[in-house]
Write a structure and sequence with these properties.
The structure holds two protein chains of two kinds.
Chain A lengths: L16 H26 L3 H21 L3 H19 L7 H27 L3 H8 L10 H27 L1 H6 L4 H23 L1 H18 L3 H25 L12 H31 L5 H6 L1
Chain B lengths: L4 H25 L3 H21 L3 H19 L5 H22 L6 H7 L7 H20 L1 H9 L1 H6 L4 H42 L3 H26 L3 H27 L6 H8 L1
Helix pairs in contact in B: 1-6, 1-9, 1-10, 2-3, 2-4, 2-9, 3-4, 3-9, 5-9, 6-9, 7-9, 9-10, 9-11, 10-11
The chains are: A mainly alpha, B mainly alpha.
């Protein structure tokens, strides 16, 4: 690498194997998250998207207890949880958060038991920290094929469902009138969300999975109303934020306290939050100038946003 | 079961259940389950930060839950509420990850902050919890009518001069207060199941607000008491039983609603009964 880039990319950045895996995963996970995330934000199911990641704790600790690979624990528990949310009534706007909450509460209760048993029989409590906070620098290379396969599956579900899902997300009544099985479409989408979030939580931790699912999609939807464009923009934002986060985390090894890198998740989350807030500025400015010129104090943007 | 340190556990759990039952009623009524999850969970970063700079954990929890809750309220005014809540939560957790990475010795305490340590409460912890609980319940009592109005009929509230935004901020501050006092006792995850499960179950049994609150407190008390009793005899974690009993009481509530509906309207194809019958 040429010398003038050293202040940005510390020495050894491009030759490190962990960084290479991280950069690769940092490109795929945000893309899958963006495809699902745009619909998650449009349907107002951020809580479900976050809860499924948290519920991964239950799957991870349970899988550890019975001795199967954590990936399968993550995916299985997410699908079961998504099915339970669907049955309780996530499709109704008023019961949405409640359904998620009940399932999350029960799943976390189970997680408490599994972690206790893990600690009793296997003498470890490290699982909590790893699952919740994760780290993009500690990904095992062996699970990569399964991750790729499941990612392709998620993108395929979203691609096949694209038009009916879009219509039923914008207006469930209109979709039903056109003969679209709204509930079945919603349930299939929830399945895609469950797998996507399980993958993301497994590879990069529950915090980052929520951040990448919601943040880029919400920021993109603030400056474009077209879902296709929003997905592309969200993908770009997600990948960009993750890569920048990786570079900063690598560099931070030389920041105070020296010899102790700052976590990637902190950088990525902060970048995404800042981008989301910046994406709201044009709207804010527009609304202000429009209401000033028209002489009214109504907020047209906020009304359309809900 | 009722001797020595267990007395503290019983007292503390009772206080927590009363607060969770009262605050949780409004959480379920307003559909703010996500906020009730995000504020305690994010406030955990405050505890990590406080331990890093060596001050009392309660201070860190209080500062983070209050700023987190008010941040959600202010930003949620313009953007989508659930998106803002999610982003505020992950930002706080990101800060938590940063604090944790800087203090090495803190990691083992995470489990107790997440899942609580109700069986290890000292006398000195009882007094601040009780004081905060009284403030919390008093705040709900004082704001009961406007809060109720703006939760059920926000437009009618605005017409009567009750600002929905101001009520939202008040409600969020109450959630933050409840969080600060309960998190060290039952953990961030369990306060959430208590605040959702018990009130949601109570609302299936009655439509009247006052009765629902009393019932919600009663269910929360039964949940916590039986969880402690079972945990004491079986040695399994309290959190597991709180989570399971909360979900079970909600399922019972739903069953009750379905049973009453099938009795009052024998028509199977009743439109309002279709959703419940399908589950």
């Amino acid at each position: 690498m040429s010398h003038f880039l050293v202040p940005v990319f510390e020495t050894g950045f491009f030759t490190s194997a962990t960084v290479q895996t991280a950069v690769l995963v940092g490109a795929t996970v945000p893309l899958v998250a963006a495809a699902v995330g745009v619909f998650t934000v449009m349907r107002g199911q951020s809580f479900a998207g976050h809860a499924l990641g948290d519920i991964g704790t239950t799957g991870g600790s349970g899988a550890f207890l019975v001795g199967v690979g954590p990936l399968w624990g993550f995916v299985a528990i997410s699908i079961v949880a998504a099915a339970a949310m669907e049955m309780i009534g996530i499709q109704r706007p008023r019961g949405r958060d409640l359904a998620t909450g009940i399932v999350l509460g029960a799943a976390l209760g189970l997680a408490a038991l599994f972690l206790y048993l893990d600690a009793t029989y296997h003498n470890t409590t490290g699982a909590t920290v790893t699952i919740l906070f994760g780290s993009i620098f500690t990904i095992a290379g062996s699970t990569t094929p399964a991750i790729v396969l499941l990612s392709v599956m998620v993108v395929a579900i979203v691609a096949v469902l694209y038009r009916p899902l879009l219509l039923s997300s914008v207006s469930a009544e209109l979709a039903a009138a056109r003969g679209i099985p709204v509930r079945a479409v919603g349930a299939l989408y929830l399945l895609a969300l469950a797998i996507a979030v399980a993958l993301a939580a497994m590879t990069i931790g529950a915090i980052l999975s929520t951040a990448l699912l919601i943040g880029p999609a919400a920021a993109a939807l603030r400056f474009t109303r077209r879902p296709g464009t929003a997905m592309l923009a969200a993908g770009a934002i997600g990948v960009g934020a993750t890569w920048l986060g990786i570079v900063l985390a690598y560099d931070s090894y030389y920041w105070p306290p020296v010899g102790h890198g700052w976590p990637v998740s902190f950088f990525v989350v902060t970048i995404i939050l800042v981008l989301y807030l910046l994406a709201g500025l044009p709207q804010l400015w527009q609304a202000r100038t429009r209401s000033a010129s028209a002489g009214i104090t109504r907020e047209p943007v906020a009304a359309g946003d809900r | 079961m009722f001797s020595g340190f267990m007395i503290n556990a019983w007292t503390e759990a009772t206080i927590v259940a009363v607060v969770a039952g009262v605050v949780g009623f409004f959480t379920v009524l307003r559909g703010s389950a996500f906020v009730a999850h995000a504020v305690p969970n994010g406030a955990f970063a405050g505890a990590a930060g406080a331990s890093l700079i060596g001050i009392n954990t309660i201070v860190g929890l209080g500062v983070f839950s209050l700023f987190g809750a008010l941040g959600i309220g202010v930003l949620g005014r313009r953007g989508r509420h659930d998106v803002v809540t999610a982003l505020a939560l992950v930002f706080m957790l990101g800060l938590g990850a940063l604090f944790l990475s800087m203090s090495v010795e803190y990691a083992p305490e995470i489990y107790s902050l997440l899942f609580g340590e109700v069986l290890g409460i000292s006398n000195s912890e009882l007094v601040p919890t009780a004081a905060l609980a009284i403030v919390c319940v008093a705040a709900v009592a004082a704001l009961f009518r406007p809060l109720m109005l703006s939760s059920v009929l926000p437009e009618a509230g605005e017409a009567r001069g009750v600002s929905a935004f101001r009520m939202e901020l008040c409600f969020l501050a109450i959630v933050a207060l409840a969080t600060t006092m309960t998190v060290p006792v039952v953990g961030t995850l369990l306060i959430f199941s208590l605040m959702i499960g018990a009130p949601a179950a109570a609302r299936s049994f009655t439509d009247r607000p006052a009765r629902a609150i009393v019932l919600s407190v009663a269910i929360a008390l039964v949940t916590v008491w039986s969880a402690i009793a079972i945990s004491y005899t079986t040695n399994y974690p309290v959190g597991f039983f709180v989570g399971m009993i909360s979900a079970l009481s909600y399922a019972l509530g739903r069953g009750w609603v379905a049973w009453r509906r099938s009795r009052t309207s024998p028509l199977a194809g009743h439109p309002s009964g279709a959703g419940v019958a399908a589950t």
